[in-house]
Write a structure and sequence with these properties.
Layout (H helix, E strand, L loop, with lengths): L8 H11 L5 H8 L3 H4 L7 H24 L3 H20 L8 H19 L3 E8 L2 E8 L8 E7 L6 H6 L2 H7 L3 E5 L5 H5 L10 H12 L4 E9 L2 H11 L6 E4 L5 H9 L10 H9 L4 H8 L15 E6 L8 H9 L6 E6 L14 H21 L1
Parallel strand pairs: 3-4, 3-5, 5-6, 6-7, 7-8
Antiparallel strand pairs: 1-2, 2-4
Helix pairs in contact: 1-5, 2-4, 4-5, 5-6, 10-11, 12-14
């Protein structure tokens, strides 16, 4: 993995995620160079400075985009707004849970993201998925044409990503090129659902899977529906597919088979954390006030006895050098999914790239493989 900040895994992960989601090396270097010395003090120190430096680059880009927009250069403006959103969303992800002005920054991300849709991506729109008297904020990329419904993937994020990160990854674009729509959802405990609506994570993910399927079935432009979850979504998605029978396929993009055990490892300082201020972050996501209570709850975030219930095609994708989630969990999910009619395990190696957590070191390599697998499964189902 490219390591701009030697020895600081968490900050480096943010850099490679940004670069592999459309960031430009010069702009990322402009954001990182002023804080390079701070990175040597650990991932938790200097995150406010990280925010300030990356936001400065993002806002400079946004100002350029506004000038391009005024001049009528919609494509140039949209491309700059897209990168500005990417940089600001990554910097926001690195902050303490209740850092001052965090929600102000996040609202700015939403504003910049909408500019992208308005200027260069009219196929993607903001939607709201009704859920338990509230709603799950989401983006929908529509690949249907000529009034013919298209298959659709529900894409779920993990512990610290947002629907803006999912959009920046380009995965929805890859699916659209294959005639597949995408619903990118901020699940409870993530993104806008957590930040602006206070919805926290839970073990029973089939609840919000049902809400997503209900929403898509009511649209009229969606045919079959699959579910993909990355990072902690590698628990969320298989759990949902085991109980929500309307799903046609499932992908665990990072095999979070026993996330509760991973938390105990992190207490013992084994493995890497995904974000700075880690325990502050997980308590916020799960709506808990202390670590002991959280650890007790997290024990139930486990797919033993669950993946056996999956009866649709199931793909498990993992990096051989994932420093957050042990590779053995990928094998466990695959081995236990005995009732899937088409199960597959794909381990990405360091030699080819995509070997880090959810393949962030070579994200396009992994996402294209998943998009092809999804397209193949939908085609096989259509032709059957």
């Amino acid at each position: 993995m490219f390591e701009y900040f030697p020895g600081n895994y968490v900050w480096n992960l943010g850099v490679v995620a940004t670069l592999n989601s459309g960031g430009l090396i010069d702009e990322v270097d402009r954001a990182c160079r002023p804080i390079r010395d701070l990175a040597a003090q650990g991932s938790d120190v200097g995150t406010a400075e990280f925010m300030a430096s990356w936001a400065a680059v993002a806002e400079d880009l946004a100002a350029q985009a506004a000038a391009e927009e005024k001049a009528g250069h919609r494509r140039s403006a949209g491309q700059k707004y897209r990168r500005a959103t990417n940089y600001l969303a990554q910097a926001e992800r690195m902050q303490r849970a209740h850092a001052p002005d965090r929600n102000v920054v996040y609202r700015r991300c939403l504003e910049l993201q909408q500019k992208v849709f308005d200027l260069i991506d009219p196929a993607t729109t903001r939607v709201a998925v009704p859920f338990e008297g509230a709603h799950l904020p989401a983006y929908f990329t529509n690949a249907s044409t000529g009034g013919t419904p298209a298959p659709c993937i529900i894409l779920w994020n993990g512990l610290d990503s947002t629907k803006e990160h999912m959009y920046a990854s380009g995965f929805a674009g890859e699916l659209a090129a294959r005639g597949i729509s995408t619903l990118m959802v901020d699940c409870p405990g993530s993104g806008e659902a957590l930040r602006l609506h206070g919805l926290t994570a839970r073990v029973s993910t089939e609840d919000w899977a049902a809400a997503c399927v209900d929403h898509l079935e009511a649209r009229g432009d969606v045919s079959r529906i699959g579910l993909v979850g990355w990072s902690l979504g590698g628990y969320y998605a298989p759990r949902a597919a085991a109980f929500e029978r309307r799903l046609a396929l499932c992908v665990a993009w990072g095999a979070n088979h026993d996330w509760g055990a991973v938390q105990k490892r992190r207490l013992e300082r084994e493995g890497e954390n995904p974000v700075p201020h880690y325990w502050d972050h997980v308590l916020w996501v799960w709506g808990e006030s202390d670590v002991d209570t959280f650890i007790d709850k997290a024990a139930a975030v486990n797919l033993d006895g669950v993946v056996e219930r999956i009866t649709v095609p199931f793909l498990v994708v993992h990096g051989e050098n994932d420093r957050q989630i042990p590779l053995r969990y990928a094998h466990r999910s695959y081995e236990q999914a005995v009732n899937s009619p088409r199960r597959e395990l794909r381990v990405f190696t360091a030699a080819e790239g995509g070997a880090e957590h959810i393949g962030l070191d070579h994200l396009s390599h992994v996402s294209v493989f998943i998009a092809d697998w999804v397209a193949d499964v939908f085609k096989a189902g259509r032709d059957a």
